Amino acid sequence: MAHLQVKNVPDSLHGRLRCFARETNRTLSAAVLAAVERELEAWEWRKRLAERSETELGADAATLIAEARELRDRELGSM
């Protein structure tokens, strides 16, 4: 397993990491790894999202939602 050393961590960030580690019952190392993993997952998700082609709905999304709500309300009203 590789080792990673981070230098020049601002005191405020170090304090936040320590608080996060304490509140989630993790070591500081585990808390940092969890934060890095979350950031990488978010970056990968944004990258995949940007690569997808746009979906053509055939109508404005707000119109589709309004129609679905109207249908739902009619169905609930007839019960």
Descriptive overview:
By secondary structure, the protein is mostly helical. The chain has one domain (11-77). The chain contains three helices and no strands. It has helices at residues 11-23, 28-51, 61-77. Helix 1 packs across helix 2. The longest helix is centred in the middle third of the chain and has 24 residues, at 28-51. The protein is elongated, with a radius of gyration of 23 Å. The protein starts with 10 loop residues before the first helix and ends with a helix. The relative contact order is 0.06. The model has no long low-confidence stretch (mean pLDDT 94).
Question: What is the secondary structure topology, with strand pairs?
Answer:
Layout: H1 11-23, H2 28-51, H3 61-77
Helix pairs in contact: 1-2
Name the helix and strand elements from N-terminus to C-terminus, one letter apiece: HHH
Number of domains: 1
**Count of beta strands:** 0
* Morphology call: elongated
Structural class: mainly alpha
Using only C-alpha atoms, the radius of gyration works out to 23 Å
